[in-house]
Write a structure and sequence with these properties.
The chain contains 12 helices and no strands. It has one domain. 37% of the residues are buried. It starts with a helix and ends in a 6-residue tail after the last helix. Helix 3 runs antiparallel to helix 7 and helix 4 crosses helix 5. The chain is mostly helical.
């Protein structure tokens, strides 16, 4: 368990540093809001979310995967497949489930009230990938726990998925300008910053597109893929039209946002 936490923290810190450096060296968009305030808010949410999960869940997805394997729970513990194939299929199915969860949070009004906090960021950068309401994180953990048990996913695949998911979320929220040709090649296999930025547009039909975090394939297969923002990456407006005042985006007001009127 200790090695799991070391892996998670090391990858988190490493990706955060690398993407933050990329944003300094090759930023894509000028910032419109206070970076200091946003970083304080978004990184404090990481601490709050992590603490909430640790307090409420004595057992987390990786530990549940070990338990499921020991007790023979789940699909992949009931069929005879090579370990590498079970791990690969588990990783892919977990990613598809997270895609579906993301869609659900957009189209279910009560869940959107939680998720919209993520979309209130007026800029996108590496910290935006961790800007989630604690209640959304708790629901997400419950969905992951259920998915791990039903699939019987190997613990190694679950750990790899969780680490990659967090790393990709920071990368694809990054304010990084990639060469166009490289972006077009990379997004065949991975959600890029340009691809995900469309999802944070104030235009609703763009907000309801490009739901993937790791792989771009689910958006293409399910018809939710949108290649570019209508107004272009430099002229598009990021955030939600209802939340343009930075004074409404302080940490306390964000935490209370699901319970307050627009």
């Amino acid at each position: 368990m200790q090695s799991e936490q070391t892996i998670r923290l090391s990858v988190f810190a490493g990706v955060l540093l690398l993407v933050a450096l990329g944003e300094i060296i090759s930023p894509h968009r000028p910032l419109v809001d206070s970076k200091r305030r946003r970083w304080f808010t978004n990184l404090t949410l990481v601490v709050i979310d992590t603490t909430a999960v640790r307090l409420l869940f004595p057992i987390l997805p990786v530990a549940v995967a070990y338990m499921a394997e020991t007790r023979g729970w789940g699909l992949f513990n009931a069929v005879s497949l090579a370990f590498w194939l079970r791990a690969l299929l588990s990783f892919l199915l977990l990613d598809f489930i997270i895609y579906l969860q993301h869609v659900l949070f957009h189209y279910t009004p009560i869940l959107w009230r939680l998720h919209r906090m993520h979309h209130t960021d007026l800029d996108l950068d590496v910290t935006s990938g961790n800007r989630f309401h604690p209640l959304e994180i708790i629901i997400s953990i419950l969905i992951k726990l259920a998915a791990v048990i039903i699939l019987g996913a190997p613990a190694q695949a679950v750990l790899a998925f969780e680490v990659v998911l967090n790393a990709c979320a920071m990368f694809n929220h990054g304010n990084i300008k990639l060469p166009v040709a490289f972006d077009h090649l990379l997004r065949l296999f991975l959600v890029t910053p340009d691809m995900h930025r469309v999802h944070h547009s104030t235009i609703v039909r763009e907000t309801n597109s490009n739901f993937g975090f790791n792989f771009p394939w689910w958006d293409r297969l399910c018809g939710t893929y949108r290649s570019q923002p209508e107004k272009g990456h430099l002229d598009m407006t990021i955030g939600l039209t209802e939340y343009r005042d930075p004074q409404r985006l302080t940490l306390l007001r964000l935490l209370l946002q699901p319970f307050t009127p627009l």
